[in-house]
Amino acid sequence: MTLTSTLAQNLSALVGADAVLPVEGVSLDGVTPQAVARPADRQQLSEIIKWAAADGVRLFPRGGGVFSSLGNLPSQVDVILDLSRLNRIMDYQPADLTVTAEAGITLATLRRELAQGDKYVPLEAPLPHRATVGGILATGFSGPLRFSSGLPRDWIIGACVAGSDGAETRAGGRVVKNVTGYDLNKLYTGSLGTLGVIVEASFKLAPLHGTWAGLAAPFPSMSGAVNSSRELISQVYAPQGLQVISVDVAKKLGLDCPGDSGAVVLAFISGRPRAVARRLEESTRQLEAGGSAGSEALDEAGARDLLDRLTDLPWLEEDMPSLALKVTLPPSNVGSFVDAMELPPGAGIIADPGFGAVQLLRWTPAGLGDSDPGVTLALIESVRRNATNLNGSAVVEVCPPGVKAGIDVWEGCVGEAELEIMRRIKQNFDPAGIFSPGRFVGRL
Amino acid sequence: MLYHRPTGSLKVSSEQISPQGKWSAVQPAQFVESLKEIVGADYVIFHPEDLLVYEYDGSVDRSMPRAVVLPANEDEASRTLALAYREGVPVAGRGSGTGLSGGALAAPGGIQISFTRMNRILQVDTENRTATIEPGVINLDLDTHVRKFGMRYAPDPSSQKACSLGGNIAENAGGPHCLAYGTTTNHVLGMRVALEDGTMLNLGAEAREIPGYDLRGVFVGSEGTFGIATRITVRLLPLPETVKTFLGVFPDIDSACSAVSAVIGHGIVPAALEMIDALSIRAVQNVTDAGYPEDAGAVLLIELEGLWEEVDEVSREVESALWETGASDVRVAEEDSERERLWLGRKTAFGAFGTIAPNYYLVDGVVPRTRLTQVLRKVSEVSEKYGITIANVFHAGDGNLHPCMLFDEREPGVKDRAMAGAAELMEYCVEMGGSLSGEHGIGLEKKEFMPLVYTEQDMDTMKLVRDAFAPANRLNPGKIFPDGEPYEPSLQRTPAQADPGMYV
Amino acid sequence: MVQPETPAQGHTIHPHLGQDVLEPLNNEPGFAGLDVPSEADLYRCVHCGLCLSSCPTYTTLKVETESPRGRIALMRAVHEGRVGISERIVSHWEMCLQCRACEAVCPSGVPYGRIMEYTRAQTLSQDKQGAALKRVDRFFLRAALPHPRRLRFGFHLLRIYQRSRLRTLVRASGLLKLLPETLRSMEAQLPDLKEPFFSPGPEVYPARPRTSSSEASAGSPRTVALLSGCVMPLMQGNTMRAAVRVLARNGCNVAVPSNQVCCGALNLHAGDLETARRLARRNIDAFLSAAEGREGYKIITASAGCGSNMKEYGELLKNDPQYAEPARRFSQMTMDVTEFLAGLPLDPPTGQVNRRVTYQDPCHLAHAQRITGQPREVLKAIPGLELVEMEASSMCCGGAGFYSMVQPEVSGRILETKVGNIEATAADQVVTANPGCMMQIEQGLQSSGCHAAGRRVAHVVDLLDEAYRREEE
After folding, report:
1. Is A181's CB within 8 Å of B440's CB?
2. Taking CB atoms and an 8 Å limit, are C1 and B501 in contact across chains?
3. C306-339 b/e with 16+ CB inside 10 Å = b?
4. Inter-residue contact A187 to A195 (CB < 8 Å)
């Protein structure tokens, strides 16, 4: 360990060598940190933050690192704060439908523990064995069921956050309904680690029962698929999740898709068996009436497997897309957005016509490597233009560091007046600028 | 004996203005004239006799504003704020004045902006299931309107017939159906808000998710201290295929509580799950026939919604859970008129307490739902200990209690006992892992209890956000956070001469 | 027994408010005398605000001063001595229609109508009435209404005025502009007196049950007494005759006692409790003497406003040692004609009235008497009649007794909303159950030229009578 930095040495002195990890192979958007700290407990975390604040050391909190491509390119990465050891379940009350857990717990572990009491937390994330609760909250991640399950902001009821003075403060609580004080939970959710380190969070839970089913309905065209889905989503028997995927995405999921311009509608249905059966039946009927041919019903295992693979797809380390954009817009504009997009080779779409979200993914075609930044930039530009025209916004979630260096991944997402308030919030919470500086909207 | 508020004239000493506010050299009369220039002479209320009706909301506190301004549109609202900001005058937004924590009351020397004229439903977007409205729109009017399009607005506070959406946003209002659908914050998509200096911001949009800090999320429930919403876009839900309402009749509170646990324990989250105790049943039946059996110890009102297959299956489970936990009767209402009648009693209960005692003080504590039995036992202990009648009608499904202390203020010392009892209950709720307020807000009346829940550092962190939105703290100052003064409510009635024999 | 705290200590102030000031907001007097709103009634209001959206003046004017909660707050402030009865405060009280919509929705059961009547009694006794109300009270409510002969004579003159060319001349000449606004609006509001007057008298109209097997005709005839009223027999004589026929058809001998007088409702609403009590006593004498020994004797009225008042004679005369008990009995016997008819097994009409109608709930029927279903039941019994509900059918039309004369501007705005709601139903005819509503809506329809203006605003009994009469066709 000849390359051990001064920061790493200082950290070792502060919290012990045990809490300092090697930096080899660790990077944030291609930038190697000077140190990786893995506090053993909250006390150590607090000490690290105090030390960082005193010395102006920049901290980048991290859970499983699944979403570490999110955000603007950091100019300098001092210390990555690995929170994976803060992974206890502090309080689980199945009968109250609440849980409180530390932020470093993985979603898979949390789900497993909750299932013991027949409950689940309606959070979604790719690679749940790595993705942590803290990471899901910091990114505000949502998946294919967001139409019915909502977003992490809808399920968090309390948070404990270590601020820039190293002290933990609480907001919310452990009860499902609470208007005592400001709802800082909402503020922390999606703040990408720029206001403090989420240490612990409490959630409302849902009962775990019933069954699953799914449906894969191929359509000859993307717009036909979106239009049919829009109609289905407005029915009382709408499925819990409805995604429209383009050919390339379908292929990666091993699904049949007609022609080069076709699409597949994926419906995910859960609940009581009789209701699931009816939703499946009516959805099939409606999608077929809308032009789908040869739809395939999925049983519980098939549906859950497909749901997991779809959620994971854009975030698989072994097959990461070189570019991923997420567009959010009014649901009725999803069709227009999809119609207006001209996709270059290797690009695919996952659209959520119920919620109003479109993921645009591009896996660099073999042989091109990273050598087409022009195409990438043009694609980003056209996605943004389309999104803005349709009252939406686009965030670049994944892109090659070389391209990222020249852009603001959040560009156009926030108006100037609102950004001013955000700047003040950041300034008030983190006056020294030690938490993930430069990564967020407006390079906060 | 004659009393009135010091605001009879517009002369206000500088100490009465918020610490940050500086009363500039402008004459009070000139200030009123300037307000009139913005909204028109008819829409500035400044005569002390008229202001008597703006000193209250639905809560126990009173505070007379310096003036009330009724803007017709966003521009007038923004200019009013800008003027007040320049003159150092604090501002409180007011919807219908039905709040229960004093959120709409003016700060000393402050003005109110009343939004009753801004009550248009601007747009209903059936495609995206959204509605865009002005802040003065009444909650039920919105719901009634969008039902014509097969949709509904889910948050349904008991005061929905009168309360405004702007007020709902300030307090993050709840309601019985928030059990399944979440409170106001889960239904607000976008807002245009005016800041303390009149600057306009757009928080959120038509899209459900927006990048950047969730300013919209933290704004909802900020009790009018961050800004004032002047244009609101809310999410609508489709009407369910089937709705079924159950009335479970129980011999006592304990068995009703165990029924609540049994239902939730079965993995059922109904659309609504409400409890009404014996005293409240009596009060309701005094004024309206809601069909609640008058000899019941408690009733549960349970509503299921969804596909008929779901409702059908779940309703059998609910019914058996009710019988198993000792229900003496279970009634099912499927017809709209029957269901409305059952709900009517629930929704008028608080007002109906007026038939039992002239004063009430409502505790809005919330506890984990498994603690309901314990907390309700504590409620009766407190009732006995302090000699105060306490009625319970509340959102049992999410553990949101509403013990209501009923008393007659003219009885010497009773008010102090009621307040002490309320404080003990709030402390107990927090001790049980709960919180001070589930849906009414902290406002004036609960702010001194905040330290039970939050440390000074927690509260300082909250204030960091307020300082970003409203650095001069000119909006609704003096609310939410304790200022060290012991809380002493000015109760709603102060009889000069009482004839106890007249009392019902 | 609860002992009042000494007020000096009883009044607490939130710390925010700084010091309390022990002087009233003005130097006007407070409530005095016996006819005052009772403290128990005033403090029943917990200012929850649930009344707001039902109040026509609040929803029209949008200010709290013109809301039920605000008016009660002002009464309380007066009661507490924080303010005296000033012109400004009276103006808010007099903006009230006394429609009692708030009372019907109040979860605390605040008897708003009663409180407002006592408050009006205070403004009257202290000579604080607004100028418009004072004029109406003096020249119409006191000088005309309580005096049947004087009133009838006046209406004869009016009819002559209307039938001659005089009115055309007066209207054209602009002479009306010389009249105060109230009288001008009265002049405008008076409908053409086209219908023959109806008169009380010693005659009893005999029951004429149809010789069918209907249950109504099965028993022996019962005797009921019909309130003739003050203005209704002069303006809507046809409706009065229809009421008599409909009752007779349903097995009633109908008496219209000749010594009866105006019920006194408008006097009561104006706060003139003395006149109201005097009239009540006379009616009690007139109607109860006829009740002796008659089983099932009912006092029927076709006017919702009168019925509401007559049902509250008990309250009005509760402190009258001689009349308290008879007043209570009188009140118990009183029934609205639609209430009475719906309570019978109604002899079903077979004549067709092929028409689309919409029903306006009279405030004093829907809110004060809580009668909303019965008039609709009667209407639904009429073959061919299509009843379409208008939006906010129980919201006041703005007529509200003398209100349209005292507050013509606000009354007009409320009427405009009502006419819009009527128009939206595309009804051929409006039907209601109160003479004041009939007049007010008639006027609104005429001036808007809406579709329903083609037919006279009907009373429920008019349509039932029409259906019976069409049986012969």
Report:
1. no
2. yes
3. bbbbbbbbbbbbeebeebeebbeebbebbbbbbb
4. yes
| Residue contact C4–B408, C-beta within 8 A | no
Nearest to residue C314, comparing CAs of C330, C298, C299?
A: C330
Chains B and A make contact, 3+ CB pairs within 8 Å: yes
* A vs C contact (3+ beta-carbon pairs below 8 A): no
The answer to whether residue A436 neighbours chain B at the CB level (below 8 Å) is no
Closest chain B residue to the Cα of A91, Cα to Cα: B433
Phi, psi angle pair for A309, to nearest 5°: -65, -35
Q: Where do you find CATH 3.30.70.2740 in chain A?
A: 320-404
Give the whole-angstrom CA distance, residue B241 versus residue B362: 36
B202/A contact by beta carbon, under 8 A? yes
Digit-coded pLDDT (tens) for B212-261: 999 999 999 999 999 999 999 999 999 999 999 999 999 999 999 999 99
Nearest to B405 by CA among B13, B392, A72, B396: B392
| Inter-chain CB proximity C49 and B96 less than 8 Å | yes
B472 touches chain A (CB under 8 A): no
Cα–Cα dist C94/C129, whole Å: 8
Instruction: Tokens for A329, please give them.
Output: 């817009």
Q: Which of B170, B119, B167 is CA-nearest to residue B145?
A: B119
Enumerate the residues of chain B whose CB falls inside 8 A of the CB of residue C4.
Answer: 410, 495, 497-498, 500
B268 touches chain A (CB under 8 A): yes
Q: Neighbouring chains of C at 3+ CB pairs within 8 Å?
A: B
Residue A154 DSSP symbol: G
pLDDT surpassing 50 at residue B308: yes
CB-nearest partner of B159 from C15, C18, C49: C49
Distance between terminal CA atoms of chain C?
Answer: 70
**Mean pLDDT, residues A36-42:** 96
Which alpha helices (DSSP H) does A69-201 contain, by range? 107-115, 133-139, 146-149, 184-188
> Smallest Cβ distance to A93: which of B208, B370, B441?
B370
Contact state of A415 with B395 under an 8 Å Cβ cutoff: no
Lowest mean pLDDT, pick from A248-262, A316-330, A405-419: A248-262
The interface predicted TM-score (ipTM) is 0.96
Contact A236 B240 (CB under 8 A): yes
In chain A, residues under CATH classification 3.30.465.10 are: 1-209+414-444
Q: Which residue has the tokens 């990048």?
A: B211
CATH number for the A1-209+414-444 domain, one of 3.20.20.300, 1.20.1440.230, 3.30.465.10, 2.160.10.10? 3.30.465.10
The DSSP code sequence of A3-33 is: T--HHHHHHHHHH-GGGEE--TT--BTTBPP
Which residues does residue A200 pair with via DSSP β-bridges, in sequence order? A102, A160
Asked if CATH classification 3.30.420.140 holds for the domain at A320-404, the reply, yes or no, is no
* Sequence ranges of chain A with CATH classification 3.30.70.3450: 211-313
Which domains are assigned to chain B? 14-117+473-495 (3.30.43.10), 121-238 (3.30.465.10), 242-437 (3.40.462.10)
Q: Does C19 touch chain B (CB under 8 A)?
A: yes
Quick one: pLDDT at residue C219?
A: 64
pLDDT at residue C182, as a whole number = 57
CATH fold of the domain at A211-313: Alpha-Beta Plaits (3.30.70)
C 101-120 residues inside an 8 A Cβ radius of B: 105-110
Write the DSSP string, A128-150: TTT-BHHHHHHHT---TTHHHH-
Q: Where is pLDDT greater, at C67 or C168?
A: C67
- Residue C16 and residue B108: Cβ atoms within 8 Å? yes
Q: Answer for the pair B54, B45: CB distance below 8 angstroms, yes or no.
A: yes
Those of residues 89-108 in A touching chain B at CB distance below 8 A are 93, 95-98
